[in-house]
Amino acid sequence: xxxxxxxxxxxxxxxxxxxxxxxxxxxxxxxxxxxxxxxxxxxxxxxxxxxxxxxxxxxxxxxxxxxxxxxxxxxxxxxxxxxxxxxxxxxxxxxxxxxxxxxxxxxxxxxxxxxxxxxxxxxxxxxxxxxxxxxxxxxxxxxxxxxxxxxxxxxxxxxxxxxxxxxxxxxxxxxxxxxxxxxxxxxxxxxxxxxxxxxxxxxxxxxxxxxxxxxxxxxxxxxxxxxxxxxxxxxxxxxxxxxxxxxxxxxxxxxxxxxxxxxxxxxxxxxxxxxxxxxx
Length: 280
Description:
single chain; mainly alpha; MetI-like fold; 14 helices; disordered C terminus
């Protein structure tokens, strides 16, 4: 077998493996989608079959789910919390990383390792003390939870920004200061535009996490300001009963915005991760 044939065979095998992996990842989404159009009594009996004339329920599940969950209100709170949390994470962690990289002393070195260490601390270890502390400080609101998300998302974001900033030449900042820029102007007019690939990557990763997060909103703001994951759980009735039709329909509606966001921005993820790994 020639080298060309071996290369072609290798690429074919890679495509087959990647196709199988892709189908494995997409199949749960497809199953949820087809079941959202079935009558709720047929979902458990025929979960993998396509809707037919006997099982097809039209938009009944969607209408029922919207009425039972208060979906539009939950969508608004999820959007508010996600947008402002991501903005806070990107803005404040990029500034922190710039300070850590450019001001080299024992304090910034220790600060960097504190952020890195926070990445390995499981949420379950601190959730009860965090919930109690947040309640005493009045952070159990949609505005307060933004600060909590900033704290939990800062570790990875600072780590990625620091990795990228180490590859940014110091000379461009010195040139900006010679031209009369103060540190704030230097950061927003020179440094932050250069951080765009990593900033978009950080925004995507955190948006997907915050949008889909159930435990933290449930513990902090509960049913008063229901986010989408919390609202969907209210379709569970007493004694374990679940309206499967409405549940599937609401799951479809909840994942559509984040899928659209990801598809528009996914090309920046690898670019930002690779850019942040230039120097360690």
